[in-house]
Amino acid sequence: MQHIIDRFFKYIKIDTQSDPNNPAFPSTEKQWDLAHVLVKELKQIGMQEITLDKNCYLMATLPSNLDYEVPTIGFISHMDTSPDFNATNINPQIHHNYDGKDILLNKEQNIVLSPDYFDDLLQYKGQTIITTDGTSLLSADDKAGITEIVTAMEYLLQHPEIKHGKIRVAFTPDEEIGKGAHLFDVEKFGAAWAYTMDGSQIGELEYENFNAASAVVTITGKIVHPGYAKGKMINSTLIANEFISLLPSNEIPQATDGYEGFFHLHTINGSVEKTNLEYIIRDHDKKLFEERKKNIS
Ligand SMILES: [Zn+2]
Fold it and tell me: Of 124, 125, 157, 286, which has the fewest Cβ atoms less than 10 A away?
């Protein structure tokens, strides 16, 4: 276990935050830092056909140890970390034998991780939990996935008595900004099927996905001194409010599950003159998805 924690800590110390505003591949140079560390490590544990392409996609092979043909399978995870919150100077904390109570992440800043707020925590009572000190992301998404894959490959290399076919692994950049698959060379990867190690709960297997889009609604108003505003001022924040209430109030993430689609308003920025609404749109059904896009535009 300590070996896995050490490996995970080594990865999370490397800042790999991606940048949604940079069209380059990868979107941040620092993602190469982890890619280079992984190349070295994959060599060390004995992986073969290690390639790192010009867009920062890393692939490697664990050759088959069977004397007959079976399909090649793949395992994938992403190297970047979400740009939503600070991801530098990650300071991990280990909580052994979690007692189900509040976890004080940061005494100075009084940051508490509480099962009253995140009741998922209670599923891990009695287990070891790794958190941050509350001032950054942990970047377990998806360095936990990389740790799992590298450790599994290492284990299989050390235990040739476990029989397996050819296994391909890949580590990609820029997943968090929606570009992880953009320049992924499927043919070069050459797996009959593959699993992305990027889940949440232990034992969870996701085998299908929704259609996804985003929408930015910009409303322009007109600013006039409030004392002289009658019949003149156009308040874009109030129009935004109207717009929001025109969309179905029950088609939101917190009111849907399973295959039900939604409009998710995740950001509002506004003043009298200009208001921006940012939505994500999700639907499993392609036809309903197209209707949703039409409906908002
Ligand atoms: Zn992820």
Answer: 286
